[in-house]
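Bit of a strange request maybe. I'm writing a small parser for structure token strings and I need a real example to test against, not something I typed by hand. Could someone generate the tokens for this chain?
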Amino acid sequence: MTTNILLCGVGGQGTLLASNLLAESAMEAGFDVKKSEIHGMAQRGGSVVSHVRFGDKIAAPVIRKGECDILLAFEELEALRWSEFLKPGGLVISNAQNILPMSVSAGKDKYPEKITEKLGALDIEVISVDAMGKAREIGNQKCLNVVLLGVLARKIPAIEKKIWAELIDRRIPQKLKELNLKAFNAGWNLV
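Reply from user aminoacidic:
Good idea to test on real output. This should exercise your parser:
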């Protein structure tokens, strides 16, 4: 059995750290793991995408369209943009945040309206959370990626919660550990 998870966001949201923690947690749980990243113009607010696949034996790192089990989106437009990768009945976990692309900021395009409703019309499950609001409530908006990881972790029973907590404890710098453990638990408790 293979689990395919696609993480997508905008540069600076911590998408790559989240994908690294996901991949490492799956390895810690005993799975074969493959990961692939696309950075784009990440430093300028461009799209960042990471494919994480884990299971008994994984041959390729890239998820094909229509085969994604879970889409973890750090921003609503990214959720809509990458939704075609989800399989029927798949799950999208989306941060209820809108970050305007350059084309929208420049007045060349219009940001789509009612994205969560559009996603809900597809044959998928949709969980929309205010990860940014929860991160601010905890004390640092930069930990929104770990809030989202907590939500995701709750939906992956094959990886025990203690594996995630131990990994955060090992991988996050000392001065940010407590904050990130709070963020993870806050996300865990959102669903």
